[in-house]
Design brief:
This protein has one domain. It contains 2 helices and 2 strands; from the N terminus they run H-E-E-H. By secondary structure, it is mainly alpha-helical. Helix 1 packs across helix 2. The longest helix is centred in the first third of the chain and has 33 residues. Helix content is 66%, strand content 7%.
Length: 88
């Protein structure tokens, strides 16, 4: 239970930093690679009258993966994964 609480707190604390990193650095660089000058978040495909914002989905997935990786690394490095194990 302690590990879950610590992971939740770390996730909330790191989320803004990771979002800024993804939005301000990763998205523009990926946007240049795919040829979108406005960045990855604005990448879309027109299907009939609908505009599918696939770039926004990719950006959100990248954001999630970076947050998950940071939390995993912090929990492993601090040994917090052993807090909930039964002693015996």
């Amino acid at each position: 239970m302690v590990g879950l609480a610590i992971g939740f707190i770390l996730g909330a604390a790191v989320a803004k930093v990771v979002s800024a990193l993804v939005n301000d650095i990763a998205n523009p660089l990926l946007g240049i690679l795919i040829g979108k000058s406005e960045g990855l978040k604005e990448a879309s495909v027109q299907v009939g009258s609908a505009k599918v914002l696939w770039g926004d989905l990719v950006s959100t997935v990248i954001d999630f993966l970076v947050v998950a990786l940071v939390i995993y690394i912090v929990v492993k490095m601090a040994g917090l994964d052993k807090l909930d194990k039964k002693k015996g």
